[in-house]
């Protein structure tokens, strides 16, 4: 994957994330237990995605330095 391709992937992710936040920002979960479970679940998923992207970015940077 080239740096340009990675940049496009991040751009698409950010765009989709922003759109989803905009659409779901008015949602209300009245059950406190369910709300807390959802927060934990989302946090885990976001951390996993960020970790994967950071690893991917690091690998791409290392590869481009080797080729550079």
From TrEMBL:
One of its GO terms (biological process) is exocytosis. Belongs to the EXO70 family. Residues 3-48 form the Exocyst complex subunit Exo70 C-terminal domain. GO terms for molecular function: phosphatidylinositol-4,5-bisphosphate binding. This is Exocyst subunit Exo70 family protein. It comes from the Eukaryota. Keywords: Exocytosis, Protein transport, Transport. InterPro entries: Cullin_repeat-like_dom_sf (IPR016159), Exo70 (IPR004140), Exo70_C (IPR046364). Coiled coil: none annotated. Component of the exocyst complex. It comes from Quercus suber (Cork oak). One of its GO terms (cellular component) is exocyst.
């Amino acid at each position: 994957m080239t740096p340009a391709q990675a940049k496009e992937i991040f751009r698409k992710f950010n765009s989709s994330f922003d759109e989803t936040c905009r659409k779901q920002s008015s949602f209300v979960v009245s059950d406190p237990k369910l709300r807390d479970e959802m927060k934990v679940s989302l946090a885990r998923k976001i951390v996993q995605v960020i970790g994967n992207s950071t690893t991917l970015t690091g690998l791409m940077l290392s590869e481009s330095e080797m080729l550079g």
